[in-house]
Write a structure and sequence with these properties.
mainly alpha; ABC transporter involved in vitamin B12 uptake, BtuC; about 0% strand; globular; membrane; cell membrane
Length: about 350
């Protein structure tokens, strides 16, 4: 007869069962994301037969217009949405966890404002007109702005506290946005080129531009996923985290670096896309709870799923014209976020 001490505790059984359930749910979401990738390649403003889509991927013919649309337009667009979505989802979950602020989004560190300013300066000073040229300037601007925000927020005895980071981010963002607006108001040609990047879009993305930020994106993903346990400890409170031996300052620094790299990469290749990094972590938290070991992977899958579906909707809703994905995500994300905010328990960290 089995003794009581040999049977696993009920809490352990529940924990294992929950782990299996979450793992199965994540696999289902990955399958749905794979379907969204296929949908993004197959559906668009131009009708392309399913057979032609397969032939374009397996036996590309540059003389076939349908093949050119699939390989040169839709495939890079889908890859951009996939990578930008992963970056924004992880960045949003990390910044909300490290600041313990449910209303925080990746732009809180000034990355969008910094990227926008450097792109504007690149257009004005160097006459850049291609997305490939925007990538490095956008990434550099995001990195510089994020570094400045973290440096300002670190001043004082307590270091980079969540409140100081939020205030520093708001101040730096306002300052950079003012400079950007000043340049745009005095240069009509720059404004005409910048507005297409500013709205946030996956259209016309060069695979070379995606390849340029891919190494940085990979580093950001590793940093973000590696911060799961430390974010769980930090969520217990700074004092308890220190008592458990965690270096709170180092944790914040690594998390801020992950957000800067991830959001800088996404902004550089797709422009500033709103509501993805803000809303998706809350949806993931409804499924997984506060455990970042599950929250981060779920956010990394849900965000590109949302971005790709929004992009497909933007292609077909006004055929033959298109809506930029940044507009569609705002239309989808805003009502969802309002509902989440009204359910107070779901947004407490």
């Amino acid at each position: 007869m089995t003794s009581v001490s040999e049977s696993p505790p009920r809490a352990e059984v529940r924990r294992r069962h929950r782990g299996v359930t979450l793992a199965a749910g994540l696999l289902v979401l990955v399958a749905v994301l794979a379907f969204a990738v296929v949908l993004s390649i197959a559906v668009g403003a131009r009708a392309v037969a399913p057979g032609a889509v397969f032939d374009a991927l397996a036996h590309f013919d540059p003389a076939n217009p349908d093949h050119v649309v699939v390989r040169d337009l839709r495939l890079p667009r889908t890859l951009t949405g996939l990578l930008a979505g992963v970056a924004l989802g992880l960045a949003g979950a990390v910044i909300q966890g490290v600041t313990r602020n449910p209303l925080a989004d990746p732009g809180i560190l000034g990355v969008n404002a910094g990227a926008a300013l450097f792109v504007v300066l690149g257009i004005t000073a160097f006459g850049l007109t291609s997305v490939t040229g925007y990538v490095w300037l956008g990434f550099l601007g995001a990195a510089v702005a994020g570094t400045v925000v973290y440096a300002v927020g670190s001043l004082g005895r307590d270091g980079a506290t969540p409140v100081k980071l939020a205030l520093a981010g708001a101040a730096v963002t306002a300052a950079l946005a003012s400079v950007t607006s000043g340049v745009l108001l005095t240069d009509t040609m720059t404004f005409d080129q910048f507005r297409f990047w500013q709205v946030g879009s996956l259209t016309g993305r060069d695979p070379a531009a995606v390849g340029q930020v891919l190494p940085f994106l990979a580093v950001g993903v590793v940093l973000a996923l590696g911060s799961a346990r430390t974010l769980n400890t930090l969520s217990l409170g700074e004092d308890l985290a220190r008592a458990l031996g965690q270096n709170v300052l180092l944790t914040r620094l690594l998390c801020a670096l992950a957000v800067i790299v991830l959001c800088g990469s996404a902004t550089a290749i797709a422009g500033p896309i709103g509501f993805v990094g803000l809303t998706v972590p809350h949806v993931a938290r409804l499924i997984t709870g506060p455990d970042h070991r599950w929250l981060l992977p779920y956010a990394a899958v849900l965000a590109p799923l949302l971005l790709l579906v929004a992009d497909v909707v933007g292609r077909v809703v006004l055929r033959p014209a298109e809506l930029a994905v940044g507009i569609v995500t705002a239309v989808i994300g805003a009502p969802v976020f309002v509902v989440l905010v009204r359910r107070r328990k779901t947004v407490r960290l």
